[in-house]
Amino acid sequence: MTFSSRISPTARGLITLYSSTLLAGMWSMIVPALPVLAKSFDISPGTAAQTITALAMGRFAGMPVSGVVLDRLGTRAALTAGPAIACSAALLAGAMPRFSLILVLVFLIGIGESIWVIAREVAGIDLVRQEQRGRVLSGFHGMNNLGLALGPLLGGFLTEAIDFRAVFFAYAACAALSVLLGAVVEHAKSRSIQKSTPSPPSTSRWGIAALRQRLSGLRELFHQIDPDLRATYIVLVVATLTSFVHRVTTQSMLPLLATTVLGLSPKEVGMLFTISGMSVFAMILPAGFVIDKVGRKWATVPSTGIPAIAFLLIPFAQSFFQLAVLISFLGIANGLSLGSLATSTFDVVPASARGRLQAVRRTIAETGGVGAPLLGGYLADRFNPGVPFLAYAPLLVLSAVLLAVVARETLEK
Hints:
Layout: H1 3-6, H2 9-24, H3 34-40, H4 45-48, H5 50-73, H6 75-93, H7 99-127, H8 133-161, H9 165-183, H10 208-223, H11 230-261, H12 266-282, H13 284-294, H14 297-313, H15 320-348, H16 354-382, H17 387-405
Helix pairs in contact: 2-7, 2-8, 2-9, 5-6, 5-7, 5-16, 6-7, 6-9, 7-8, 8-12, 8-13, 8-15, 11-14, 11-15, 11-16, 11-17, 12-15, 13-15, 14-15, 14-17, 16-17
């Protein structure tokens, strides 16, 4: 009897999904290459940071599609299509001679990422019982952040040893491997697939009537949530938005702050993100225990309160060590945030619409991922790269207060 035959289908499925999740985080190889990319194309650091904006815009554009694909076709289609799109776009990006073309292709990488991430969450939820959701989703986010930790380290090395283009080719290889993993995931056909009632025909796909129809569909989805939990869902959407803001701001602005203000090298920038990712990885088991045994809010509230404090202090850091300490606290907060927010949302939404409602939550949140580096790039060029951190800190404070006061505890004891 082989080893693979002795482990359960659930364990095999989770191992495959966790491996794909780790590889997905390797897009972060691009992050330490941003300052070098700016010099190569003779653009400002704030303009180079718009690479992260393009990625976020792609995620935003892909979210509505991912929800429909999951609810109608199942997870296997998303688990293979998402990384396949990302792989193709990354290969082309590595060969592009113009920065504008790279932005377009990074946008496509973001679309693939959005389909990929929702598919992993729903596939994992389908494999386990309700009382195991927190640990499973914390594991997903922990493995993803391990990839986010290793990516900048490898990206910094590749950028210094070869060129910034090497990071795109390396990420393409990771995405290609994930296509193969997605094709063999156990129980890839999600049990949440429902036979949907046909939508009334629309005379104009992009007209006012069609827009009203889409808004009506969103309202109907929202009304499927228990009335007592609707306010909680809204707060979770706001919290996810602010979570995206602080993560994307860190990814886009920290390399600029570290290189232009403190004079750190790409390898040292990569090490900072590795420290953050390792902090997240260390939180996998503690966060899962807190979410499943203590309470969802015991994880969600600190996940936004801690970054608020860190953002107020980062602009005043004077050394690699000081930045590393603050980044490690951001990593701890990240370890608590996305697993708890996703788990709380699964508690709130009905099974018949969970793919679409999760996609709605993340689509709205991606507006923060799109807007944060845009405004951050302007503030960095107009003032300095530390200003965006100060500008976004109040949003994190507001999110922590809403989670503490308005949101309900969804853990059933």
